[in-house]
């Protein structure tokens, strides 16, 4: 073997090993929160999550006994339709939304999501709809991208720009909520910076605290790297 062939072979081996090391490092980082954040999803099971019971308005009217019974049924449904597959939260398109078992007030959130063609979902903040997730090519979307506050009436509901990756690829949200103000970045681009309105009680401001929900919308959904940082 000539010296040139030896060098070429050695470089190829080094590049292959480096690529493998990067792949392994990427896998190890899955669902591991960056500094200052906590993982809402541990990558292994549904610990820290619960099924959906009604909405903030209807839950407030329930007695403790009624709520406990309804939660028991909702949790059973949750386990039937939300699964963890290779470190990813997967929803089969049936059942209801997945909810944090803790309420949050002001926070920063990171979450990766992926949908299929014609996919439609969202992320409820303080139990309220919603930071929109969908396929921009659907009739409902009409070319509008994800990340808008879809249910707003008085304040902007559409994203500033369309920043979605192609359907079937992973996307990343950065969401910040302080008071009623919500800022959303999608894949590093600012798409929303406005007020989230109270969908359930239009005559009231958004609730001071509430659960975070990964919305069911009748189609297969994927989430991973779900992190949160609580703010004062």
From TrEMBL:
Give all residue intervals belonging to the 3-keto-alpha-glucoside-1,2-lyase/3-keto-2-hydroxy-glucal hydratase domain.
36-229
Q: Which GO terms describe its molecular function?
A: hydrolase activity
What Pfam families does the database record attribute to this sequence? Answer: 3keto-disac_hyd
- Signal sequence range: 1-25
Mind listing the UniProt keywords for this protein, alphabetically?
Signal
Its recorded name reads: 3-keto-alpha-glucoside-1,2-lyase/3-keto-2-hydroxy-glucal hydratase domain-containing protein
Naturally occurring in which organism (per UniProt):
Gimesia aquarii
């Amino acid at each position: 073997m000539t010296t040139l062939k030896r060098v070429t072979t050695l470089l190829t081996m080094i590049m292959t090993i480096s690529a493998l090391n990067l792949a392994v490092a990427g896998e190890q980082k899955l669902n591991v929160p960056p500094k200052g954040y906590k993982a809402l999803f541990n990558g292994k099971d549904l610990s820290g999550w619960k099924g959906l019971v009604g909405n903030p308005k209807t839950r407030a009217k329930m007695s403790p006994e009624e709520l406990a019974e309804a939660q028991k049924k909702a949790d059973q449904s949750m386990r039937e339709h939300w699964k963890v597959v290779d470190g990813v939260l997967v929803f089969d398109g049936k059942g209801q939304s997945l909810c944090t078992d803790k309420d949050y007030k002001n926070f920063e959130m990171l979450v990766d999501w992926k949908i299929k063609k014609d996919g439609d979902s969202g992320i409820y903040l303080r139990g309220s709809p919603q930071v929109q997730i969908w396929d921009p090519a659907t009739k409902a979307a009409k070319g509008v991208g994800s990340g808008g506050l879809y249910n707003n009436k008085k304040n902007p509901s559409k994203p500033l720009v369309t920043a979605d990756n192609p359907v079937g690829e992973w996307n990343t949200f950065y969401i910040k909520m302080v008071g009623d103000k919500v800022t959303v970045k999608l894949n590093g681009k600012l798409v929303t910076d406005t007020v989230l309105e109270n969908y359930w009680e239009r005559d009231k401001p958004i609730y001071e605290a509430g659960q975070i929900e990964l919305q069911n919308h009748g189609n297969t959904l994927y989430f991973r790297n779900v992190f949160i940082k609580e703010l004062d």
